[in-house]
Design goal:
Layout (H helix, E strand, L loop, with lengths): L5 H12 L2 H8 L8 E10 L10 E4 L4 E4 L5 E7 L1 E8 L6 E7 L3 E7 L19 H4 L5 E4 L1 H6 L9 H5 L5 E2 L9 E2 L7 E5 L2 E2 L4 E2 L4 E2 L6 E7 L13 E7 L8 E6 L3 E11 L3 E10 L1 H5 L8 E15 L4 E16 L3 E17 L4 E18 L6 E21 L2 E21 L9 E2 L3 E15 L4 E15 L2 E7 L7 E8 L4 E19 L2 E12 L1 E4 L10 E4 L7 E14 L4 E18 L15 E17 L4 E16 L8 E2 L6 E10 L4 E10 L3 E2 L4 E5 L2 E5 L8 E2 L3 E11 L9 E9 L9 E6 L7 E6 L6 E9 L1
Parallel strand pairs: 1-7, 11-16
Antiparallel strand pairs: 1-4, 2-3, 2-5, 5-6, 8-15, 9-10, 11-12, 13-14, 15-16, 17-18, 17-50, 18-19, 19-20, 20-21, 21-22, 22-23, 23-24, 24-25, 25-26, 25-27, 27-28, 28-31, 29-30, 31-32, 32-35, 33-34, 35-36, 36-37, 37-38, 38-39, 38-40, 40-41, 41-46, 42-45, 43-44, 46-47, 47-50, 48-49
Length: about 800
């Protein structure tokens, strides 16, 4: 399927040829060419020095404005003269000042003060109020931790990903399942970034919690459509999580003691006014309680994570940022079984402003996910390990050509090393023999050009191209499989490759475009088209992903996945932006979607690539969203009507079947009510269609045993019962004393408040009392009410 590149290439070429003066003539009628001769640039932060990501800088008289980036930096091209500039951010007092620009750059450092609240008002959004209407972005949701903390939490653990599951277009295959699904895609089709470093497994405790410590996170951005050309490598979405910068002026701390884990975070100056650090740690302590039970003292079950960031101001034009993450889950059952898995991430970023219009970010990062399991001694003693490592270097430029015209361009290079699996016996008497699947290596280079442009007072757009080149490389003896679609492939030959030799190359162009047409000051229409390519694949033949699933790069046998998505939306705000509403419809086609022949084994299968099947996919739906942003009562309602299907030769009689994560109906209602300035009540209700699964429709008897049977080649012919749940919480803040830095609050939660026994899965077994009868058994992760209490503090 060749991408429709030419119209987008023409748009890019036209925008680069069009002179800045012409752009200004479009965005500000009445001003002549050559009037744009000055630039206002600077940073926006709160009183603690935290950057206000997405804060707005507006010159209302000219109808011009911009937003602060991830470091709180901004640049706005303006004509020379005197202008009234307004800086604003939801939840903070706006600031207005009159500035005179005399033909050169003017730099400002602006600090906004949090809005004083005399009643129990709660603000649940962290961006400009009209951003959903006026921006060119589609399918984008931004959250700050204030919003996330308002949502009732499982066992008191405030969680980023559980909050995302309450948004339109986002779902999961079940309670306790790792990852999340966006618009009919798999969990591996989400690009998850923590300060630019990709996260390969975002879950603790097999999916119950995410790896993101709430005390370390400052900003969360989910992009479901209209993905900028800067990002690639996944088909469904981008989850961009940003860590807090430290306070360069004073030492601060925060943390919490909860039912499952405790947290502590510290941040403060390294060199006052010039550099700062932020450290956060979290650990669960189920293993501590296990040691109190004599029969369980040798067992362990816990997770921990450490997050750190340091920022340095090197000069008026330079900044240096270091970020890191280390986290693991450990499960040991005495000396009979040991397992652990976790992520290690690191990022170094240098920011430099060449001049008021041109800036660059140079980034080096590394990301590794690995898991180990085994038995330490005895005849079944073994050690099993697997990992995926990627190292990336990239450079990203931002150039503001003129008011209403911003170019972003850059390039990146990534090196992948995948260890599919290695088994080593740990005891001389072990029945296991050393077994190792060869490491897989690949490189990927990418370059992009993206242009955000205001065409007229009503029409704006963002469009770009991304070129990715993926090379599967040696060393190793590489097998080649061939055969008709729908059956296990036959080995047709093997060839030896040296270190760094190219085995197979895949090059792809990925056009992106989005348009916004303003109907009124409070409403707009938007449209977007996105083509994405994915060269890393999570090979899992289970309904819910597990930490033991295997990642694989595209090879000479495994082709890249492609997706084309078209989306349309209507966005409307009411009552001076107190309410926002949107309706988005989307359609997505996918190719080279991976499935497996019946009975395929993923783990340590040296011929796994021969067992893979490929086919097409399609997903489409409508998303409805209504949100109340301020006042004593805040919250949102979201509803998604959708369908996700696959068609793969060799499965379901070569006909379309619903994907395992297809959920036609998904409803969420979230609300928080501030009874007083110190007491707030919150609730969240969710309802969704049950997941699709394959169930027997007949049975036969074999040697006195009743064996369930599926007639015909059918897939996902049954759905488990619908899922619904109500969560409640109450937050009580302690009395604040003047001059006292310590602030505390108690959070009381009820997860699954009415004790719904939702089905994680349903399986068949023989009745214990009557073996001739077959019975269906419902497996539930949480089948009862789960109360919790958490004490949070900051100083």
């Amino acid at each position: 399927m060749s991408p429709p590149v030419y119209p987008f290439a023409w748009l890019l070429t036209a925008s680069l040829v069009l002179p800045p003066a012409a752009l200004l003539a479009q965005t500000a009628p009445g001003r002549g060419a050559g009037t744009t001769a000055a630039t206002l640039r600077g940073t926006l932060a709160d009183a603690a020095g935290q950057p206000l990501i997405g804060a707005t800088i507006v010159v209302k008289a000219l109808g011009l404005g911009t937003a602060a980036d991830e470091q709180g930096c901004f640049a706005l091209a303006l004509p020379a003269g005197t202008h009234v500039v307004t800086y604003s951010f939801v939840g903070y007092e706006p600031r207005t000042e009159t500035l005179t620009l005399a033909g050169g750059p003017l730099t400002r450092t602006v600090q906004l003060v949090a809005a004083s609240v005399s009643t129990g008002e709660v603000i649940v959004t962290a961006r400009r109020a009209e951003d959903n209407v006026q921006s060119t972005e589609m399918g984008v949701t931004r959250l700050d931790m204030k919003t996330v903390r308002l949502v009732p939490a499982l066992l008191g653990e405030v969680d980023v990903i559980r909050t995302l599951l309450l948004l339109p277009g986002v779902s999961t295959v079940g309670e306790g399942a790792a990852g999340f699904n966006v618009r009919g895609g798999g969990i591996d089709q989400n690009l998850i970034l923590l300060d630019d470093a990709p996260v390969m497994n975002s879950s603790h405790l097999f999916g119950l919690f995410s790896i993101f410590n709430p005390d370390a996170v400052s900003d969360i951005k989910l992009v479901k459509g209209g993905l900028p050309a800067q990002y690639g490598g996944r088909l469904s979405s981008l989850l961009d999580v940003r860590l807090k910068n430290g306070n360069a002026d004073s030492l601060r701390g925060s943390g919490g003691i909860g039912t499952v884990s405790s947290r502590l975070a510290l941040d403060g100056p390294i060199q006052k006014g010039k550099s700062a650090f932020a450290l956060a740690g979290r650990r669960s302590y189920a293993d501590v309680f296990l040691k109190l039970v004599p029969a369980q003292r040798d067992n362990a079950a816990y997770f921990y994570d450490l997050t750190g960031k340091a920022s340095f101001t090197l000069g008026p034009r330079d900044g240096l940022y270091l970020s890191g993450y280390l986290g693991r889950d450990v499960f040991n059952f005495g000396s009979s079984f040991l397992s652990d898995f976790g992520n290690t991430l690191g990022t170094v970023r240098w920011s430099h402003a060449f001049n008021p219009r041109l800036a660059v970010n140079v980034t080096a990062l590394t990301s590794q996910y690995d898991y180990h399991l085994g038995v330490p001694t005895g005849t079944t003693g073994f050690d099993w390990q697997s990992s995926i490592l990627n190292r990336t270097g990239k450079v990203d430029f931002t150039y503001q050509r003129a008011a209403g015209s911003t170019l972003s361009f850059g390039a990146s290079g990534t090196w992948y090393t995948v260890q599919p699996g290695q088994v080593t016996p740990t005891d001389p008497a072990s029945i296991f023999q050393p077994l190792q699947r060869p490491d897989q290596r690949a490189t990927e280079g990418a370059a992009y050009l993206d242009h955000e442009q205001v065409f007229s007072p009503r029409l704006a757009g963002q469009y770009g191209l991304r070129l990715s080149v993926f090379d599967y490389r040696g060393p190793g003896r590489i097998a080649e499989y061939a055969g008709p679609d729908g059956v296990q492939k036959a080995l047709v030959g093997e060839q030896e490759y040296g270190k760094g030799d190219r085995v197979k190359r895949y090059a792809n162009l990925e056009p992106r475009a989005s348009l916004r047409y303003t109907l009124t000051a409070a409403s707009s229409l938007k449209a977007s088209y996105t083509r994405t390519v994915q060269n890393l694949h999570l090979l899992s033949n289970t309904t819910a992903s597990s930490p033991l699933d295997v990642w694989s790069p595209s090879t000479n046998n495994i082709r890249p996945e492609h997706a084309d998505q078209l989306a349309l939306g209507y966005f409307r705000n009411f009552h001076n932006n107190a309410y926002e509403a949107s309706v988005e419809v989307y359609g997505k086609t996918l190719d080279n979607q991976i499935d497996y022949i019946n009975g395929a084994n993923v783990l340590l299968n040296a011929r796994l690539e021969a067992d893979l099947l490929y086919g097409r996919g399609r997903a489409y739906g409508a998303e409805f969203y209504l949100r109340k942003n301020n006042g004593p009562l805040t919250g949102w309602v979201s509803y998604t009507l959708s369908r996700s299907e696959r068609r793969i030769n060799g499965i379901n009689n070569n006909d379309w079947y619903v994907a395992k994560y297809d959920k036609p109906h998904n409803l969420a209602v979230v609300g928080s009510y501030a009874l007083t300035a110190r007491l707030a009540l919150s609730g969240a209700f969710t309802y969704s269609t049950g997941i699709a699964t394959t169930m027997p429709d007949s049975r036969f008897e074999y040697q006195g045993l009743i064996v369930p049977n599926v007639n015909g080649d059918v897939r996902n012919n049954y759905r488990v019962p619908a899922y619904h749940r109500l969560d409640l919480s109450a937050t009580w803040q302690q009395q604040r004393n003047a001059g006292r830095r310590w602030q505390g609050e108690w959070v009381f939660s009820l997860y699954n408040a009415y004790g719904r026994r939702n089905a994680y899965s349903i399986y068949l077994r023989q009745n214990e009392n009557n073996p001739l009868q077959t019975e269906a058994v419902r497996l539930s992760v949480f089948g009862t009410v789960l109360p919790s209490v958490t004490y949070n503090f900051k100083f």
